[in-house]
Amino acid sequence: xxxxxxxxxxxRAARSSCAAAPRPAEPPGKAAAPxxxxxxxxxxxxxxxxxxxxxxxxxxxxxxxLWAVLLALFVELELGLPxxxxxxxxxxxxxxxxxxxxxxxxxxxxxxxxxxxxxIAGTLTAEQLERELHYRPAAGR
Length: 141
What we know:
transmembrane helix; 0% strand; mainly alpha; membrane; 52% helix; 5 helices; SAYSD1; transmembrane
């Protein structure tokens, strides 16, 4: 806890020193050099040592742009709808996690994939259904 408090204090001090640093006034109509514009961005990082990636180098943005360009190409070839449907199917497949990606101790929603076929809390089992059917009074009696 003390280490976390110390790191938080260091972060706050670094952030306040970046915000309080005076910036030189520029003459009107003259743009700052690209190197000067990058210096404050590098010092205002949340994690020390982590380089801020430019907007065009982010993987998700590149993937979305590639998908949109391919969609435009397939629309031009009159195959836009099949491309869209197949890409939706791929996103559903890629969005599901496999058993190797599960955290230790995390159970699957499907009991057959859990050790000993253990069911998660709130699952309706056949035994529970039978108990509820046998102990409930019959309707209309």
